[in-house]
Sequence to fold (595 residues):
Amino acid sequence: MNNLSPAWPNKAAWGTAPSLRAWQAAAMQQYVDEQPRDFLAVATPGAGKTTFALTVAAELLGRRIVDRVIIVAPTEHLKTQWAEAAGRAGIPIDPNYSAGQGRTSGEFVGVAVTYAGVAVNPLAMRIRTERFKTLVILDEVHHAGDALSWGEGVREAFEEATRRLCLTGTPFRSDINPIPFVTYAPGEDGIPRSVADFTYGYAEALADHVVRPVLFMAYSGQMTWRTRAGDEIAAHLGEPLTKDLTQQALRTALDPKGSWMPAVLEAADKRLSEVRRHVPDAGALVIATDQDSARAYAKTIKGITGESPTVVLSDEKDASKKIAAFSTSEDRWMVAVRMVSEGVDVPRLAVGVYATTTSTPLFFAQAIGRFVRARTRGETASVFLPSVPNLLGFASEMEVARDHVLGKKINDDGDIFAAEDALMAQANASEAASSDEAMGPWEALGSEARFDRVLFDGGEFGHAGEVHVGSEEEMDFLGIPGLLEPDQMRQLLQQRQSDRAKQQKARGDGLEEARRRAAADGLAETSTHEQLAVLRRELNGLVAAWHHRTGQAHGITHAALRRECGGPAAAVATSDQLRSRIERIREWAAERRSS
Fold:
């Protein structure tokens, strides 16, 4: 006990400490009243689980109920983040401790380790736990599922701990493997479910202004790709497709060489500019699938903004420093490969682009959790999504609380709570090699982005169909002020949708009248949509021929034609715009033949 600071016996009781949020105070009161050995707190990302846990630690240390603290976190970066937060709370924690070193400096009251580190040498951690009266804080405890080696290590290491505090803010795995130190009880259907000692959900946190509401911007569009059998497939992102085709369409959209990602990144940057009118230091984050894509997205963002974004790759030694530097700067963009998805604290993140093929409910909740931490009342997070059914479903279920279900059959096709095969460990360890390889040979040929809809507070808003990127209809939503209360946001979305619908109806009535006059005068031998369809087919055929001649992707060619000739995507271009592009690509072909 001589190693402890003399301040600990005189620590103020938690009730006299700086004010806690209402949920933290309520959870703390329950903990003090019950004095449980195991306590599971489920609180939505951004609600302040770290502050609650450190308040518990200070209380137990101050009352000599425990002498030491061990914090178990999913990643190396989070170890450091925990140690820094604990230091600010007056609890010195060593984030560089490893089980093999045995002792740590007498200046520390505890250590921070990863689940992987515990699994490497659980016996050493058990000896350390038994040597002192120890509080173990298990951050994001869903990582300790028994089927994983991490779970086995956690149970062996901390079986004899004096107190265990389990924390989570994301959906549990759904399988037959109980999580160590979590209590289960049968539900109405007789299936055991986890029982949280205290729950503070997203809906409650939103009502308390503890977290931001999220405005989901969904983008769809036409995708073209070649399968491993050599077949060229064209499909619409978001339309009903088989699981494999949906995944291939998503991969095509996220291909850095296509037109979809540049268009969405440009839209997201416009949204960021609007938010920064009211929140000057607001930042944006792209979550990418792999390192090559991350670097390509960063190059695109530099072309849009003129500024090089921060690129974070988890296998870099200075990844944590990059995140910390970005958090305290006023830089606009950061691009990361999945690792900035759980527990990483960058409160100024206000705009996100979900550009990864990882689409499980657990990962989605972790990723969106990076954008919901509230600082100022009225802040709203804006997250740009591919318009695919599972992601839209997750977005619409943000407020649904979930427990860990045992004994439920795992079916990846039908159960959105299917067990995570490797959780964050695999996501971080294997990011250098894209998961796309598992699906076999495949080639993205072209993609075009269309603004689809906005999801907010369980509702959907749009303009009764997709609109092209850069249009006034899209700007109706991208230009929403950066500071609005949820009720104001909902009213504004409804008003803009209503106003645009009236304008569209007025224009439609005028066009219909013009068509009737033309038909009466015998001037419309071919309908407008038929003329446009013929021109689009001709343009697409020339683009395909150009691809076979030059190897240039369809999306790149379409984008180049748009830059030179002007106008929106081919799907919504006028006949004059399409003819201009047809003439231009024919000029390219002639120039290439004569060179």
The CA atoms of residues 38 and 202 lie 24 Å apart. The radius of gyration is 27 Å. Residues 486-520 form the longest helix (35 residues). Confidence is low (pLDDT under 50) at residues 1-17, 401-439, 518-526.
